[in-house]
User: What shape does this take?
Amino acid sequence: MTPRRLSLIAGLALLVLVAVNLRPAIVAVGPLLTSIRDDFGLSGTAAGALTTLPLLFFGAYGLAAPFIRRAPRGETLLVTSMAVLVVALLVRLLDAPVALFAGSLAAGIAISIGNIAIPAIIKRDHPQSITLVTSVYTVAITSSAALSAAVVIPLQNALGGGWRPPLGLLAIPAALAGPAWLPRLLRRPAPSSPAASTAPAGPPVRAVAATVWRSKLAWQVTLFMGVQSLLAYITVGWLPTIFQDRGMSEEAAGYLLGLSSLLQAFGALSVPFLERRMRDQRPLVLAAVTLTFTGFAGVAWAPTGSLWLWAVVLGVGQGFGFATALAFIGLRAHDVRVAGQLSGMAQGCGYLIAALGPLVIGALYDATGDWNVPIAVVLAITAGLALPGLAAGRNRTIQAPAREPAGQTHVSPPSGR
Assistant: This one.
């Protein structure tokens, strides 16, 4: 095995080790929510906030990044992210509602740091394999989310019935991921290494941020990220209820959601192999939109006996969308500095957009009493996803300003696919 391949595998392993921590802290709460609610006597609104509010903080670091005078190294961000996550997971085990909510919000902030840092690291360390590495990273995220949702109740039963032990176990992989990145954090990058390009030798961070935030292409990437995430959170929040309203048992509805989530990993892993045969990413956008549209329509209106099929179609389509959205951050950024700012913008604004999805669809369901109008709105949103996606899918990049913020998008050859 060549040194280059060994380096790629080692880098992938480190990224996966962080990625598996970026969803379970939030996803695993849902199945345990009844036990948590009963333990603390929480209202329905408070219980809902426990899972919804952390999502609002998924992009918190990204929104703060433009105001940071000197961008930290990616390794610094990841070690910090995992350290904060471990503390947050342990704090929310304390016997007090304020600790429960504070720990959940801190976990959302910790996850936001990891969310923002990794696309820039992929751009820096794997410039020729952005789509492949991003897809592996996406698979790790989606698989860990599905696995945590599936095993948390069996773990609760095996560990005595309380909600604290299964949630406490989530601190273990985070406690392993942080130290695993320490050697890279402590190692000073050589002047000629890719990591050295993150040093602020060129334009100031704020100048790069100003250019990115004023770029039309950056907003196209951001809208694609936000809308596909909105559709994903609608799926997580309401798909089991839709299945139950169509006559399925609670257990079967849960299994179908798990199946759809697992198929997202398959869709994400297919992206780099399909992308190699394409001139740009627009066919991937069309595939994601078509499959997601078809899946939602089938879930709502197809015969009940075929719901498993439409859950599969929906999962594959959303896997395409998620992997493509994350890949856009590296593919559309000309260098590491731009990738860091674009990652913050796309995910910071994107997750704010995404958090609105379950709330709006829930309000429409309450107002109409059935799923016809909410699903029609979901289908319209899905079709609209094609607009920013097709624009972002063309081979262009956002360049950093030479000295002063130029505030425009420069078209140049793609910097690695």
Residues 190-200, 404-417 have pLDDT under 50 and may be disordered.
